[in-house]
UniProtKB/TrEMBL annotation:
Keywords: Coiled coil, Cytoplasm, Cytoskeleton, Phosphoprotein
GO-annotated cellular components: centriole; ciliary transition fiber; mitotic spindle pole; pericentriolar material
UniProt protein name: NIN protein
PANTHER family in alphabetical order: NINEIN
The species this protein was found in: Formicarius rufipectus
Lineage, broadest ranks: Eukaryota, Metazoa, Chordata, Craniata, Vertebrata
Coiled coil: 6-82
Amino acid sequence: GHEQLLKMMEERMMDVEQKLRLVKRLLQDKVNQLKEQLSKNTRADAMVKDLYVENAQLLKALEATEQRQKSAERRNFLLEEKIANLNRIVRNLAAPEVRS
């Protein structure tokens, strides 16, 4: 009876050891997955930061372009006014000649 009890306990210990090895392997796989995910997340975080900086630069460039466009539109408006005034002066100068 004593021998058989020892043999059963030995078998149970081997079974438990086998299960522990399996659990250890599964845990190591999970640790490896988590390390890989952390690495991917770190790279993604760096890319997001780079995109944020790039976006800020693009917004500044867009604002500068909009300011240049508004300035060009103002200059264009002033030029159109000057042209209209010059045309009026030319018409006024030419009008008396036509009458004479």
